[in-house]
Structures are given as C-alpha cells and as structure tokens.
Amino acid sequence: MEGKGETFAAYLAKQYIAKKSFKSGTVPEAGALAAAADIVLTLADGLRFEIVCIVDREANSGKRFALSRDTLEEIGKSCLKYSGKMSGTQLPVSIRVIEVGREPATEADRDRLKAFKRRGLFSKVHLSGWIVGTADASVWANSAFRGLLIGRRFIEELLRNPRESDAELRRPAPALPAKARFPLVTCALLALLAAVFAGEIAWGIDPWTEFLSPSVRTLVALGGLFPKLVLQSGEWYRVLTAAFLHGDALHLLLNGVALYLAGAVLETLIGRAWFVALFVIGAIGGSLLSLAINPATMVSIGASGAIMGLLAAAFVCSFRFPQGADRTHIQMSLLQMLIPSLIPIALNRSGQQIDYAAHIGGALTGAAVGLLLLKTWRETSPAPRFGGFAAAVCLAGAAAVALAVVPLREHYEDYVLETFLIPNDQLPKTNAESKSRSADLVARYPRDPRSRLLRAGTLIEERDPAAAEQQLRAGLKEERILKTKFPPELEGRLRVMLAAVLVDRGEAAEAKAVARPVCGGAASPMRETLAKFQLCE
User: Fold this and answer.
1) pTM above 0.85, yes or no
2) Most exposed: 10, 68, 88, 474, by fewest CB within 10 Å?
3) Active-site residues: which are they?
C-alpha cells in the first residue's frame, strides 16, 4: 500500500514484483518461510525458481530471520521440482534472505547471515544472506563480489533514487510487435549461403575432400579473408565476402541452425531491415578483429562472425520483453548457442583452426548495436529507431558484395592458373635431379614455364636443339602465367636460352627479335650475355 510511512522493505517488495516478475507468496513446500520473514516473494518461469525472504526491521527493529541454514537447504531441495532443466541438467533453486533496517549491518548480523551460502560448487540450492541499511544506503551480501552479479546494484539504486509511486510502477510494458513474423529474410539468407556453398563445390579450383570441403585456394579465390590480400593488395571487399563462404557441409549446417535461431527472434523484434544490417555489421566487425589478431597466414571464412553478432544483439534486445518465462526461454536458448562459440577449444574436428577472433568481434559488435537499439527504443513504439540508417547499411552491404564480383572474376583465372604450376615441394633441388625429372615434369605440368626451361636445358645438353626450341617457345606462350605468377627473370631466361639456340642455327635476325625485350630492360647478367652474342643493338 502506497503511503508516506511505507518502509523500504515494503517498497523493495513492490519493485521486485513490478520489475523482476516476482509474485507475492510461495509454494507449499516453502511455507515455513512465511513465518520467518515479513514478506515472501517467488519467481517461477519454468526455468528459474527463486524465493526472496524480506525481514522488515524498520517496522520491527528486534526481528531477525530465525530459520537455520540446514532448514533453508531442505526447503530448497524440496522445491527443486519447480526449477527447469537445461541440456538435461537440473537448474538450481535460489533462496535469498534480506534483512532491511535503518541501522547498518553489525558484525553479529554478518556472522549470522554468512552461513547462508551453498555447500559446494555443484550444490543445487543457492543460498545468500543480505543486510540493507536505509540510514546510510548500504548493502551487504555474503555472495561473490558482495552480490554485484545478483542484484546489489538494483537495491542500491532504489536506496539512492526518489521512490516511484504505485502508478509509476504499474506503467504499461514497452510496446512489442503485434504478432510473430515468419523469418522470411532469415530463410532467404540461408538459401543464399547454401547457393554460395554449392558454387564453391561446382567452381572449386581443386577437388573437394571429405564433408564437401573446398580447398584453401578455392576459398581464397572466391573471396576468403586473407590478410595479405586485404592489407597489402587493398582487397577490402573480403571483410564482407568471407562471411558467405563455408569450409565444409557441417560448417554450413551449424551456422545455418544458429542463424535460424537468431532470425526467429530478431526478424519479429527489430524488423527485417535491422536484421540484415546487423548481419552486415557483425560480419565486418568479426573480420576486422580477425585481421587485427590472427596470423597473417590464416585464411578466415564463414558467417560465424555475423551470426555471433545476431545472437548477441538478440540476447541484448530480448530485455525488451517483460520478465517471465518467454524472455527466459529466449535468453537461455541464445546463450546455449552463443557461449560455446566464444570459448576457444583449440582445434575443430578437421584440424583446421577456428577463427575465434571473428566470433568475438562479431559478438562484441552485435552486442554494442543491440545495446544502442535497446537504449534508444521508445516504449510506445514496437520497432527500434534509426530504420533509415538500417536500410542504408543493407543497401551498402548489398552493393559491396555485388561490386566484389568484378574483381573476384578477374582474379579467379589467376588462381586457376596456379593449379598448372609445379608445387614448391616438388621442384628439383639439384642439377642432376632436374635432368632426371625434366621429362616427367613437362608431362605433368605442361603449362608451367619452369618445366619447359628445365627440359630445354636437358635437351641442349643431349644435343637436341630443335626439341629444346619447341620447349622454350611453349614456355613463352604462357604469357599470362609468366606475367602474373613469376618475376620477369624467368621470361628473360627463356628468351636468352632460345636466342642462344637460334644463334647456333645461324638465325641471328630472329634471335635478336626474341632477345629484344631483355635487351630493352634494366642492366642484368642476362643482358650482358646477349651483348656478347651481339644480340642487343
């Protein structure tokens, strides 16, 4: 009852009821608490089961909570049937004893309430003792961090701030969407991710392996986040395109489940424009932290950063819902996806490194945007503010991805050309090995100019200049490979060797034509060699 002489204990109970979804009274198994306390409140939302026992020492200065710690624990055990389960594990019951009086806590009171704590780490009954002094606005608790994590700040603010009237406490809950939306945009994003993955398999540069895993070269060619290409070559579009690629079918499946879970909440709560905008912002935030933290050799791909952003934003925005079973179920479901994805567990099942930097970057970005939305959200509006900005982010993200197609197409052929080159670990290491393997290397890698050069050198030693000339001309025909995959020195060596073969055959004019690009370049040993043959005019 509202009144000038209302004690803080009564006011605190009203606040717990209005803002924390507690109900007055408790279950029969905890009936003994009613005799030991002046006010008993209970929160039961299908998962949590919490009891708050308030002793009003302002109204009765000599009263103390009389039940023992063992009695409280037995009451808690009898109430476990009212708490829910998460992943098959029974959730604990919480019983909080709060003594409220004008005078601050005494050592005797603290020693008495210190006993109200759970017996061990795995105990299913969580007890805590509190003392609230209204004269000096003090709050003492025997819990970790003096109760900071379980409501101390809430009580302290009530002590400091002017009291709210009953009418203010009864103000309507913030507006929410009238009905749930079908997650249309979420399904469209899932379809897009599946289509892109199909493209990875169809246009993969190398054969895919188990679980439909594209090669690293394929992922880089199609837009994966590779620090060297972003920071040194300026291919910044990769901070966004990497989010649409996946390392294998299982990677896509897990991300798809998480994306649908986040979308089922967010599309209805914040609208489709903000949902897509958060996906884009989370992807960029994850990629930027990945660039800042990860090794320069790590190729990062996947929508995980964007999805972590969505999950974190969904968790923050879920506080828009009134306290109760619905909000708790939403938050628990989100945390079951979010928390494991942010805890490093070394390596995944395939031995590839997991990009936790992208996960954390996306989550931090999503949480920050979600907090901004929540803090600026008008209570009378079912949708968050800044919808125009969200639409602009959507358009900018779509334009960035569309424009990235142009450079990706241009560079794709360069990556395809790499498949025609001798792997570095298979290059001959000695002259003897070059001679013995030159024919095999030409047969296996006919488009690699290095295999042609090695074979030509062997044929010259075997006194077969005609065959050597064919090898050298075949190597020089691979103009794109020579220009994009090797330094100019390789083309110069091919030309010098071919010019020497032509001179030996008396074809000086053609030898000069072949040597001209080398002669017109900077001074070098190859140019000096051509000058000796009088091929540089």
Assistant:
1) no
2) 88
3) 304, 359
